[in-house]
Design brief:
- By secondary structure, this protein is α/β, with parallel strands linked by helices.
- The chain has 3 domains: 2-143 and 266-327, FAD/NAD(P)-binding domain (3-Layer(bba) Sandwich), CATH 3.50.50.60; 157-263, FAD/NAD(P)-binding domain; 341-450, FAD/NAD-linked reductase, C-terminal dimerisation domain (Enolase-like, domain 1, 2-Layer Sandwich), CATH 3.30.390.30.
- 32% of the residues lie in helices and 23% in strands.
- It contains 14 helices and 23 strands.
- The strands form 6 sheets. A 5-stranded parallel sheet has the order 3-2-1-7-18, covered by helices on one side. The protein has a 5-stranded parallel sheet with strand order 9-16-10-11-12.
- α3 (43-59) packs parallel to α6.
- The longest helix is centred in the first third of the chain and has 26 residues, at 77-102.
Length: 463
């Protein structure tokens, strides 16, 4: 069976490898670099920059840990970027090695689907080759969305793509959009010494997160002297000799050396031939798929951001394995009921399942258990005591409905909550499991106990 995968991001390359494991002959078409947005402009570059920012933050606090150090600590952006580029290159090399190991062919160029069994590839030199396919998987991903008021120029007005390739640290930045990407860059750039102002059209930062967790995060923003302007809309932006002038609907004028626009993603569907093929798309331009990741055309599948679902790399990868399995005759359906998510800010945020307001909106009887990070001995030893661990459980069955964490290593800790939900555990079952001491994971045990008023390290509540 010949399978053609269009796009080598976390959805496409994983789909290719899964199909190869199942015995298919696989060809991947990629116009840029393997790894897609995640590896080249998103997950890995930002986490590399964040690691440098965190190392800088720790260095500045060495005295708290009893370590004598003289002089000032400052970021060397050139070396930070060199390290980031080295990490990205290593990961890309690993994908190429996996392709070679499993016999996956890689073709560089732009793909156009001519029919459900034929794909044309236009190379950079103008040559065109045609690939025959028994099945096709579209995994073309997404790109930073633009606002009419903010035309990207790659220098003064930038997207996250340019932000991971900065050649100098701006003295000031206005970040339009206080979602996941905007908040991550706010923490990174602030630690590098940049004055940061965030503009958000919604009432708060991180609207996708539990409100209580987002409120705690906003307090941390204030500690970092990151200014957040919620309920604000931008009406105009103009590049000046010194930077960018930004006008808000309220009449407020702001200025900064650089503006980073982070207002969501646009789907990469242009030039694929979807209209001629008759593949259905949704109201936002996303490719419509079913639970088997099939499009409306038999034999053609789509995965990842281009389907407009949960725009996370690990979701794209799971969708890739589902599409590849079905393409190879192994029936599988996607299950989105337990999808952990992480926000790599400082402090980190991890979440899975229902937010508190969602349980309220759905009239689900529920109770909440909480445990402050400052109640953990490990957190004090680390010098990272800000944060909260929160569990939402059904009031009748005690089944865990959602877990939300803000604090050190939240992105790793959330998987204990995800595993508990995947297994259908009750909060009391999580609470009964012995947790090692001293660890941060003890906080989940305590939060589960708190659901029933039994947390050992929580003061007795007054009647």
């Amino acid at each position: 069976m010949n399978l053609v995968v269009i796009g080598a991001g976390p959805g496409g390359y994983v789909a290719a490898l899964k199909a190869a494991q199942l015995g298919a002959s696989v060809t991947v078409i990629e116009r840029d670099e393997v790894g897609g947005t995640c590896l080249n402009w998103g997950c890995i570059p930002t986490k590399s920059l964040l690691a440098s920012a965190e190392a800088l933050a720790h260095a500045r606090r060495l005295d708290e840990f009893g370590i004598d150090a003289s002089g000032d600590f400052a970021p060397n952006l050139a070396r930070i970027m060199e390290r980031k580029n080295r990490i990205v290159a290593t990961q890309a090399k690993g994908i190429h090695a996996l392709f070679k190991s499993w016999g996956v062919a890689l073709v560089k160029g732009n793909a156009t689907i001519e029919s459900p069994t034929r794909v044309a590839v236009s190379a950079a030199d103008g040559t065109v080759q045609t690939l025959n396919a028994d099945r096709i998987i579209i995994a073309t991903g997404s790109r930073p969305a633009n606002l009419p008021a903010f035309p990207f120029d790659g220098r003064r007005i930038i997207s996250s793509n340019e932000a991971v390739h900065l050649s100098s640290i701006p003295s000031s930045v206005i970040i339009v959009g206080a979602g996941v990407i905007g908040c991550e860059f706010a923490c990174i750039l602030r630690e590098f010494g940049c004055a940061v102002t965030m503009i958000e059209a919604m009432p708060r930062a991180l609207m996708t997160e539990d409100a209580e967790i987002a409120e705690l995060f906003e307090k941390e923003l204030k500690k970092k002297k990151i200014k957040l302007i919620p309920n604000a809309k931008v009406t105009d932006a103009s590049v000046t000799d010194n930077g960018v002038a930004v006008a808000l609907e309220s009449g407020t004028m702001l200025s900064a050396e650089t503006v980073l626009v982070s207002v969501g993603r646009a789907y990469n569907t242009d030039g694929l031939g979807l209209e001629a093929l008759g593949i259905a798309r949704g109201a936002r331009g996303e490719i419509v798929v079913n639970e088997r990741m099939e499009t409306t055309i038999p034999g053609v599948y789509a995965v990842g951001d281009v389907t407009g679902g949960i725009l996370l790399a690990h979701v794209a990868s799971k969708e890739g394995t589902v599409a590849a399995s079905n393409a190879c005759g192994v029936p599988v359906t996607i299950d989105y009921s337990v999808v952990p998510a992480a926000v790599f800010t400082s402090p980190e945020i991890g979440s899975v399942g229902l937010r508190e307001h969602q349980a309220q909106e759905r009239s689900i009887p529920h109770r909440i258990g909480r445990f402050p990070v400052r109640g953990l001995g490990k957190a004090h030893a680390m010098g990272e005591i800000a944060g909260l661990l929160k569990i939402i459980a059904h009031d009748d069955t005690d089944r865990i409905l959602g877990v939300h964490i803000i604090g050190p290593h939240a992105a790793d800790l959330i998987h204990e909550g995800a595993m508990a939900m995947q297994a259908g555990l009750a909060a009391q079952e999580l609470a009964s499991m012995i947790h090692a001491h001293p660890t941060l994971a003890e906080g989940l045990m305590e939060a589960a106990e708190d659901l029933h008023g039994n947390a050992i390290h929580v003061p007795k509540k007054s009647a």
